[in-house]
# Entry
Amino acid sequence: MVEVKLQNIVKTFGETVALKGIDLDIKHGELFTLLGPSGCGKSTTLRIIAGLEYPDSGKIYFGDEEVTYLPSHQKGAVLVFQNYALWPHMTVFDNVAYGLKLKGMSREEVRKKVEWALELIKLKGFENRYPTQLSGGQQQRVAIARALVVEPKVLLLDEPLSNLDAKLRLEMRSEIRRIQRELGITVIYVTHDQEEAMAISDRIAVMNVGTVEQVGTPKEIYETPRTEFVASFMGKTNVVPAKVVERNGDRVTVEFESFRMEGLHYTGDSDTVVLVIRPERIRLNPVENGVSLTGTVDLVEYYGFFVEVIGLFGETRLIARTISDRGLEGLKPTKPVTFYIEKDDVIVLPKQQL
Ligand SMILES: Nc1ncnc2c1ncn2[C@@H]1O[C@H](COP(=O)(O)OP(=O)(O)OP(=O)(O)O)[C@@H](O)[C@H]1O
Ligand SMILES: [Mg+2]
# Structure
């Protein structure tokens, strides 16, 4: 059993504070993703877990054992990079066998293990090819096999799919999920692609400039973001600056421009807030216990299986997404439109300095 625990990890590079005190609790057998924009500290976190870099302060545990300053070859965490880093002069077999030979395993054992790994990644029969004779996806599989064959306690994947085209990316991410489930190993996965993170992960940590803003299942992160940053990072959404003008227990009245919404849930201190409203939660027909906003149509965009209606409410643009395009014929730019939203679908969060 390998739980990975990070306690208050701080890392600076000269003037840059790359990690400002990271705490994480990753469970055994979990596919855990670090998600965040470029430069937020994802790779640094992985490199520290791998033992390729050491923190300025803080501790790392694998299970009960503290491993903060163990060098990478003793740690049992193997990192796979986005550029695969296969040895070009070695065959697939030799690339995968490399780590085992270093361990001094017998030829027969090595052969068995490599066979097992190639079967797992569905590349049996490719033993004698060289990396240049493989597609990007196949090279990435070999890199994963090479990591798995040494039976790591933890597999670390840093943007493993970013060099692949869109279709291969989808295939490979299911493949990674399958292998992870089959082996039941702990995987820590890094990406800046929120959709990829949602599709693949048991849990996600959303990072922003060296801090973790929220940890949760994809559903928790998407449906109940705790900060404005998390809300706006998780896919296309409406974020409207507003003011709390009245409070009644945990319900508040807010105003933006000339619009007023009553009975929204909010318990924060600050009266300067944002309203986060997912486009698919905005309806074009009245809803029970809802609020409504009347404005004009700015644009209607047809995406095939859904349609987006962009409404203009004063200066504020709101996107509504609806699956059916029936009944939308009357919606033409400059014509009036009313958006309806259930009160509990308006997430009120303190305004954040982004
Ligand atoms: N070796 C280094 N020397 C100096 N600064 C570094 C070094 N490594 C990382 N940094 C800085 O630390 C911060 C975090 O970098 P990191 O590589 O962890 O980001 P990231 O989240 O992986 O970004 P990306 O999505 O672009 O890969 C950045 O500001 C980066 O410039
Ligand atoms: Mg990185």
Notes: The domain at 4-230 is CATH 3.40.50.300 (Rossmann fold). The CA atoms of residues 31 and 90 lie 31 Å apart. The radius of gyration is 25 Å.
